[in-house]
Design brief:
- By secondary structure, the protein is of the alpha+beta class.
- The strands form two sheets. Strands 7-6-5-8-9-4-10 form a seven-stranded mixed β-sheet. The protein has a three-stranded antiparallel β-sheet with strand order 2-1-3.
- α4 packs antiparallel against α5.
């Protein structure tokens, strides 16, 4: 009996949201903060749309925060029911907001501000987060937690992949594999940042 290899599905072509130009896999994104809609963009449209003011360019800062300080007690103060979340400083909400993955997508946590203030005191780099554009991404699924500062679209991309693959009550093995691959890729493109 002959075995045939099943080819991996090809990644869909991505085009500029504004002009339709074919984009490279590492293209940039813009965000409309009023709707939190992300748009793929070529370099020319990135400049043109940023100047118009409706869209903002997402930063390209990827930092893996080594020796990040977050005790189990402080983590529990955030009242997040799963061991993964991202925190964003929100201009609209006048404070920091936390979202975690769920079968329905990004779910907002009822964040206690005192816990966030304590976290910033222990990790002053969090003061440098660009409001609405960057996030602190936390993965405490393994024994050793992983902490990153990333553009906010990376967090929504991860949550979208989790949502599409989710099966049953706990997500299934495919979700676990997606999370592991995502964080391996994130480590490879992040700069290590000792605290």
């Amino acid at each position: 009996m002959r075995k045939f290899a099943i080819p991996a599905p090809e990644a869909p072509e991505e085009r500029c949201h504004f002009c339709g130009t074919l984009l490279s896999p590492d293209h940039r994104h813009l965000v409309d903060l009023s709707t939190m809609r992300f748009a793929c963009s070529c370099e020319v449209c990135l400049i043109l749309q940023s100047e118009k003011g409706t869209y903002q360019t997402l930063p390209q800062r990827y930092l893996q925060l080594e020796d990040f300080q977050m005790s189990d007690t402080l983590w529990s103060d955030f009242l997040i029911p799963v061991n993964m979340t991202f925190f964003v400083k929100s201009r609209v909400k006048h404070g920091t907001v936390a979202f975690y993955p769920a079968p329905t997508g990004a779910t907002e946590s009822k964040l206690k501000m005192e816990a966030w203030d304590s976290l910033v005191l222990q990790n002053p780099i969090l003061d440098t987060l660009l409001p609405d554009l960057e996030a602190l991404l936390v993965n405490r699924l393994q024994n050793e937690g992983l902490y990153f500062i990333v553009p906010v679209d990376s967090c929504y991309r991860l949550i979208g992949m989790i949502r599409l693959a989710w099966q049953g009550l706990f997500g299934g093995k495919e979700v676990s594999d997606i999370i592991n691959r995502f964080f391996e890729e994130l480590k490879s493109k992040s700069t290590a940042c000792p605290m």
